[in-house]
Write a structure and sequence with these properties.
Helices cover 3% and strands 47% of the residues. The protein is mainly beta.
Amino acid sequence: MYELETANLNMTSGSPVVGERSPQLLWKQDTEYSADAVEWCPIDGYKNVLVCGTYQLADPESVKTADSVTEKTDPDTTATDPDKTTGQTQEEGEQASENIDQPKQRKGRLLLYNLEVEDGSGDGSERSVLLNEVFREECAAILDLKWGHQTIDGKPCLGVVNASGEVLLYVLQDDKTFTEKCSLQVGVDRLALSLDWSTGVTASSTPSIIVSDSAGELTLCHYQQSGLVNALQWKAHDFEAWIAAFNYWQPDIVYSGGDDCKLKCWDTRTDCSYPVIVSKRHSMGVCSIQSNQCKEHILATGSYDENVLLWDTRQMRRPLCSTSVGGGVWRVKWHPVHGDWLLTACMHNGFHVLDCTNITDDNVPILQSYHGHESLAYGVDWCRMQEHSPEHLVASCSFYDHVLHVWGWS
């Protein structure tokens, strides 16, 4: 299901002025399952491609139905006699009782969309943004997904982590379908929670992927022609390791954030027995981190404490500044072209764009805010497509109302 919005997409050049124009909803899509991750493809020729990952808790399927129960011929047995109050047989009632105690299943769906921007009625003032679903795949519940910054074997590659504790690589084919290239299980009885690629600044024929999980561990994976290899795994946090990210300018360095309220820095040239840095500047769980791929030494972190901290990675005793955004900061995304703006998904308080052009000891200003969602703000990303599109176009998704939005501003 979808809903089309028509908007004036004539964009002005140059940096926008704070409050110049509020973001407009351009497209609304029902993802059916709860949506928690969205990513625009960064590869030339594919920048109109959007992926969405979903996470759905489902009751375990009943093993038996009324039609499948075999009646017994012994007149003394009561196994198939319906219970007077529930209408169930004894066997069905026992099965239902067992199902109550079984954990819910975590299922998901990988959705692939193609963005089209069409001219309006001819006066040049309006255009229609169309988001067409071109592929879907049922899978384990998805916790995070990220496109590789470069192609692998000449094709865009998507990394996905899921509730089965796996990291998977999908290759985007010319017909806009995915084929699974390889996978690696980072552990059993755990959820793989986040991933990041090492190639944000420097290309590599053998890129690395860092994965964090619900057991508090990090796994460094190397891609080779034979598939993904577990190069290093270590205990990083006392509770869930919500997020892990590379320093794109020095990819031997990895940052992680956990439910233990700690931000840590690791040097993967060692065995990672000890972190290089431990910061307790966040007062609650650290759930988002991203290195700025346009500006060296700048790092952003977000937390359940509703604050975004900006750091100089050369001196991490204290952050450069702290900005309150009014909701737990589940994701942070630097602008991919100039790196001056930071896009944030703030759970109970929508989405915000922070203007980090001039970082001072005080907080940075909020450039734009989007409150079009009615549920937890989880996934968000910048669209990198320039042709026939607004200069500032964003996709976002929210959880319980299972909705994907495309919105933009001038």
